[in-house]
Amino acid sequence: MNNQTIAIIGAGNLGLAIFKGLEKGGLLETNPVILTKRDLSSLEKISQRQVMITTDNVKAVQSADVVILAVQPKQLIGVLEEIKDHIDPKRHTLVSVITAVTIAQIEQVIGKDCAIVRAMPNTAIAALQSMTCIACNSLGQAKLGLVHSIFDCVGKTMEIHEELMQAATVVCASGIAFWMRFIRATTQGGVQLGFDAEDAQQIAVQTCLGAASLLADNGGHPEKEIDRVTTPQGCTISGLNEMEHHGLSSALIKGLVTSFERINAMKKD
Predict the structure, then answer these.
(1) SS3 label, residue 113
(2) Do 48 and 180 belong to one domain?
């Protein structure tokens, strides 16, 4: 992708993570980026030549080809009302990364004549390891290649039906927090077993990365990899059975379902 100006409306935690990912992924070399935020103090250290920082959403949209909406859900309608008269359907592609806001809700404000794509990345985008799920309206189909080219630079992408976007938010975006808690618990266990906290965390992180890499490389099933490290009456199977006895898998599934129920409630609010 070249010579496409990308505006990120709302450079908060996720918006800034997207920007950092685009920077690391090399897109800033050929594609200018505009960042907007009401309070610019957290963006003061950004000084790249290809980046413009402003509080003016209208100015950002007027200068952009791709508009990434990354504001809080409660702020979206106000932002859309602010920029809708400056959206050029022939030029602009709108990409929303906002939780629990549907394409239909966006179309109600700006109309149905613009390419709209919903994308659900996660904060690992800043490390070029995001899993980004994508859905679009009918006009957005023609722009999917463009959107894929943005998010493929910062991880992996998957096109899904929009009705699965809520589930994708839980498994993909909230999933980062769930895995962080698992790594934190592993670190705490390592400390209890005698490691310094720093060493325990390094071991936990690399082991988690190794487990994920095994599945990513060979496409196998987790149980097959588990079988490779469990021996009869061994320490691994003893530990796994104790964790399951205390509800490891069921607790994780219940957590995912609870998050899913909450995001659906947000959609109705």
Answers:
(1) coil
(2) no
Reduced to 3 states, what is the DSSP secondary structure of residue 120? strand
Residues 123-156 pLDDT 10s? 898 889 999 999 999 999 999 999 999 999 889 9
The rounded distance, in Å, linking the Cα atoms of 39 and 80 is 19
Asked if residues 165 and 133 have their Cβ atoms less than 8 Å apart, the reply is yes
Assess if residue 126 is contained within a domain: yes
What is the separation of C-alpha 261 from the centre of its chain, rounded to a whole number of angstroms?
19
Q: Containing H/E element for 27?
A: none
Regarding whether 202 and 227 lie in a shared domain, the answer is yes
List the beta bridge partners of residue 155: 130
In this predicted model, what pLDDT tens digit does every residue of 27-71 receive, in sequence order?
888 899 999 999 999 888 888 878 999 999 999 999 999 999 999
User: Which CATH number does the domain housing residue 187 bear?
Assistant: 1.10.3730.10
The reply to whether 219 falls in a domain is yes
Hunting for tokens 């709302």 — which residue is that?
A: 10
Residue 1 lies in a domain: no
Q: For residues 260 and 55, give the distance between their C-alpha atoms in angstroms, rounded to a whole number.
A: 33
> CB-based contacts of 246: which residues, under 8 Å, 6+ apart?
none
The Cβ-side half-sphere exposure at 231, using a 13 Å CA radius, reads 2
Q: Check pLDDT > 80 for residue 2.
A: no
For residue 176, which of 106, 122, 128 has the smallest C-alpha distance?
Answer: 122
